Amino acid sequence: MVVEQLGDEELDRLFHAFADATRRDILGRVLDEPRSISELAGRYAMSFAAVQKHVAVLERAALVTKERRGREQLVHGNPDTLRRASEALDAYERIWRRRARTIEDLLKEES
Question: Where, by residue number, does the polypeptide cross the bilayer (predicted)?
Fold first, then answer.
């Protein structure tokens, strides 16, 4: 199962990264095209350091990578990790649907 392949620590990092609206917005922007941290920081009503911390959380979850280009750091989205997160959620949905069918079957038997 995909959920088991990821491991608890990786899932924890992914879901922690997704838990914040700013991080989700940053991820969406850098999946579209690489952005510098300076460019990202200009979009939010928070300090440059706060944006760097959000990017660090995304990087620990392997949702983004950073590339130094001169004095700037470009942030790139990692669609492979995003795909793995989607597969993990799909696996949880399959578990849930299987359990729902089991409950439905049990209720039909009692009727």
Answer: none
